[in-house]
Here is the input.
Amino acid sequence: MMKFFTHKHTAFLSVLVLCLCISIIFPHMTAFAETDYRAEAEARKSLPIATNEIENWPVGPQIGAQSAILLEANSGAVLYAKNINEQLYPASVTKILTALIAAEKCDMNEIVTFSSDAIHSINWREDANMGINVNDQITMEQCLYGLLVGSANEAAYAIAEHISGEGNLDGFAALMNEKAKELGCTNSNFVTPNGIHDENHYTSAHDLALIAQAFFSNELLTKMSSTTSYQIPKTATQPREDMIVWAKSKLLPGKEYAYEPLLGTKTGYTTQARQTLVSCAQKNGLKLICVIMKEESPDQFTDTVQLFEYGFQNFTAVTIADKDTQYSIDTSNFFATDIDFFGSSKPILEIDPDSYIVLPLNVDFTETTSELTYDQLAFDEIARINYTYHNTYVGHASVVPVKDIPATFDFGTKQIITEEKPDTEQKTVYINVKNVIVFICLIAILLIVILMIRSMIINTRKYRRRSRIMKRHKTNTQKLDWKHFK
Here is the structure.
């Protein structure tokens, strides 16, 4: 049989054995080679865009991302939505949450020590890093620059240990999930501070946009996320002279897809997550946040620019105080009586002059629907007016105390906010100053009565005590007189 085993067979078997060895040693290589990611991205362009279904809403672009959102940061209005609640892997955009927690809990001058666990927690050949050594120390501010500019994974680990204790990543993950819940996230579970792949570490485009709202409201973090390069200087606790980190986002100045209105950006990538990107830009009175998840390079950048331009070109900010005639601040008699004991006062509440909603350019403010609510108010809000357009939330107005209340005014009964609807019964929100004063008076009277009763009890006790003392004194006196008589 050996005579049939030719050199051709030997060569074929050699190639077969080699391929078999490669597939055993590097199974991920063969698996990935079989995946056509570009074809998958092209197919994802046909996925439905939820906001395109809204009547008279500007049609958004078809992009290759699995999930994407365009959120107006100040109003909270969602301008573009594609699978925004789907749970996906975030990769390194996780670091905006890590940075947000660090900024809230730490002083920027605090010293962070890089433990052995932090240094050896990453793959130095594949994972983004700063190149720092075990036991080196730098400030928290320098750590955050390393984290947000260079996307340094060991920096995220060191920050987590600095806040929650060495080796206590579970404790920091708990802080991440607590903060995410506080911000309104509902489809997230965070396990690592840096986003290195873990099947249990996931979030959604909408949740990331909520986190980005808080992140980009922090001036220092926004500045860091817009920095193209940063050098950490040599010190006694950091001996390297060339520790420079470089940003990877191509939206930054001088890069291929530089976008002028950009405020900040953070990239992410793992094989499982593919390309992820969170960015913020401001123009024409709008502050937009764009989140891209599961896209192919460089389309995460072109998708973002497309969505930013879609937002800036098709939507406008409408100031509520200038447009809303449905709600008015005025005075009136709360009680059905002709007697006005206190007189009339001037308004003490107003619609926040900075409140605005976001509408498509071709939509008039009168086409919106409003609803007054007292739920989930900010600390300075008395009430909130939520606005929708075809059942789509487009923003809200805050009812707040007047900043400059007149020095003198009469405390009359007040009708503070009136929703005026033609040919229908008026819906009125009252702040009744008379009732407030009466309530205060009742409380004062109650306190006076309580104090009087307390005083009577104390005096009664004193009287009884004095009576017992006098009685004992009288008895003792009588005994002494008797002895003297004897």
About this structure: The longest helix spans residues 433-485. The first strand starts at residue 67 and ends at 72. The chain has a mean pLDDT of 84. The two ends are 151 Å apart (CA to CA).
